[in-house]
Write a structure and sequence with these properties.
This protein is mostly helical. The chain has three helices and two strands; from the N terminus they run E-E-H-H-H.
């Protein structure tokens, strides 16, 4: 699903970025340019980031 239409960033892109070490919206902005244009996706990008971080953490502790 597209999270940032301006920069064509999907939830899978965010998941991949988290797996590669992204841990904040600032990291996502640097690596994917998410929420750097109009900013309307910031809340959805943050929610997606938090889900990805939680899933990654759950996988690591399992």
């Amino acid at each position: 699903m597209y999270i940032c239409i301006c920069n064509a960033v999907t939830d899978r892109d965010i998941q991949r970025a988290v797996e590669e070490g992204a841990c904040s919206l600032n990291c996502l902005q640097e690596t994917l340019a998410v929420s750097t244009c109009c900013g309307q996706c910031a809340d959805n990008a943050t929610a997606c980031l938090e889900r990805a971080l939680h899933e990654t953490q759950a996988t690591a502790t399992a």
